[in-house]
Amino acid sequence: MASTDHGGVFEALGDPVRRIILATLADGERSVGGLVAKVRGHAPISQPAVSQHLKVLREARLVSSRAEGNRRVYALDPAGIAVARDWLAALADPLAPFAQPLDALATEVARGKRELRGSAAAPAEGQPGRQAGTA
To answer: What pLDDT score does 126 carry?
Structure first.
């Protein structure tokens, strides 16, 4: 799992405005101005407030930013999103980490059964004093 703390990720996701920002960024990169316009369609908010939400999302590593001229462009950060996805996946399927070792164990058990069947059949044919078809 990435070094990002999943607690910080979920604290950042706890705010509905931040979730709107993330949903907007899922469609592609946006400048702060573009994000403000989109969020205002859902809730009255100022540009400084959106910038504060972006700061929280950046600190949680859910978004990244880059300079483009005199403005900043924001995008989803796949590493932070992966932290949330992995944590939720572990809740949905807590035994997933054991799947491969259990598959390997099943293979070894099947191999052992085949070897036992093979070794049990071979001596019966070659034992002196026994006729085929008698027990």
So the answer is: 54
Where exactly are the structural domains of the chain?
6-88, 95-125
Q: List Cβ<8 Å contacts ≥24 apart for 49-57.
A: 49/17, 50/17, 50/21, 53/15, 53/17, 53/18, 53/21, 54/21, 56/12, 56/15, 56/18, 57/12, 57/18, 57/21, 57/22
β-strands 63-68, 30-31 pairing: unpaired
69-128 pLDDT tens trace? 999 999 999 988 888 888 888 887 777 666 677 777 778 888 888 888 887 766 555 555
**CATH class for the region spanning 6-88:** mainly alpha
Residue 93, amino acid: D
Q: Is the dihedral of CA 20, 50, 58, 16 positive or negative?
A: negative
